[in-house]
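quick one if you have a minute, typing this from the bus. below you get a single protein, a line of residues and a line of whole numbers that encode the local backbone shape. could you go over both lines and see whether the tokens make sense for that sequence. anything you notice is useful, everything is just below.
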Amino acid sequence: MAEPAIVVRDAIESDIPQVTRIYAHHVLYGLASFEETPPSSDEMLSRFRAVTAAAFPYLVAESGGRIVGYSYASSYRSRPAYRFTVEDSVYVSDDVRGKGVGSQLLGTLIDRCEAGAWRQMLAVIGDSANIGSIALHGRFGFRLAGSLTSVGFKHGRWIDSVIMQRPLSSGDAAKPVLSAPPESLL
């Protein structure tokens, strides 16, 4: 029997309990997130609202009525000069890893960001041994920008952060077009 199709769509508030479940697994058992205590659904809803209020894309992957992954873009840093750079986040349910969900989420997220004013996308990947995430980003044109050694300590060991970067649209080949005051892009 074929598995249900995966549909990537904009997230809505009622998706957040399932998003919270996915993230909690990564917080408790993985190294992709440097959080050590899973945030509550209320906290995750607050984060969702902050991302979408700032006009960044927030997506979910749905299969058979169940959320199996999510991705979003957010401001890389809060200072104004960074306003054209976003950081991506992609999390997938453990039971569907390796089935293309991450690729669908990241590909759609990149498309959405390229349609916006952003010119660079960064991935800050927890754990230099996270070959799945590093390979996923590499397939979408991200290149290694650097590695921060032993900047986190979780599950009894030091963890690196790998930074990968990908241009969006024309990247730095042209100055961005400002259709609104810079403050509204933060």
The CA atoms of residues 142 and 166 lie 4 Å apart. The beta strands are 6-10, 58-63, 66-75, 85-92, 120-126, 143-154, 157-167. The mean pLDDT is 93. The radius of gyration is 16 Å.
